[in-house]
Design goal:
This protein has helices at residues 11-15, 31-46, 61-66, 93-101; strands at residues 4-5, 21-26, 51-56, 74-79, 82-88. Strand 4 and strand 5 (82-88) form a beta hairpin. The longest helix is centred in the middle third of the chain and has 16 residues, at 31-46. The protein has a five-stranded mixed sheet with strand order 1-3-2-4-5. The protein has a single domain (4-101), classed as Glutaredoxin. By secondary structure, it is α/β, with parallel strands linked by helices. The radius of gyration is 12 Å and the shape is globular.
Length: 102
C-alpha cells in the first residue's frame, strides 16, 4: 500500500480508519526526517494492515499544530481515532513497528 499525503481535507477520513494509522510529520529540509522517510515508505509497502500517512509541516501547519508538533520528525499512531503512541526524533524501523503493534 502506498503512503497517503495527509492534509486537512482528507484528515477525517484517515482518522476514522478501521486500521491503525501511522502519521509521519516531516519537512523536506530536516535531516533526521530524511532518515525516517524511507523506513515509513517500507512499512507502507510491507504492511497492508496499517494506513501510513505523511504530513509536510511546512504545507500543513494547522494540522501539525493540532497534534502539538514542536520537533520533527514526529511519528504518531492513531487507533480508533485516538493517539495510541507518539515519538519525536529518528527511530529504527523495528521501533516504529513496535509503536504500531503496541
Amino acid at each position: 500500500m502506498s503512503v497517503v499525503k495527509l492534509n486537512k481535507s482528507n484528515f477525517e477520513e484517515v482518522k476514522n480508519s478501521d486500521k491503525p494509522v501511522l502519521i509521519d510529520f516531516y519537512a523536506d529540509w530536516c535531516g533526521p526526517c530524511r532518515m525516517v522517510s524511507p523506513l515509513v515508505d517500507q512499512i507502507a509497502e510491507e504492511n497492508d494492515e496499517y494506513l501510513v500517512c505523511k504530513v509536510n509541516v511546512d504545507e500543513e501547519g494547522e494540522l501539525a499544530s493540532e497534534f502539538g508538533v514542536s520537533s520533527i520528525p514526529m511519528l504518531v499512531v492513531l487507533k480508533n481515532g485516538e493517539i495510541a503512541a507518539q515519538s519525536v526524533g529518528a527511530r529504527p524501523k523495528d521501533q516504529i513497528l513496535a509503536m504500531l503493534k503496541g
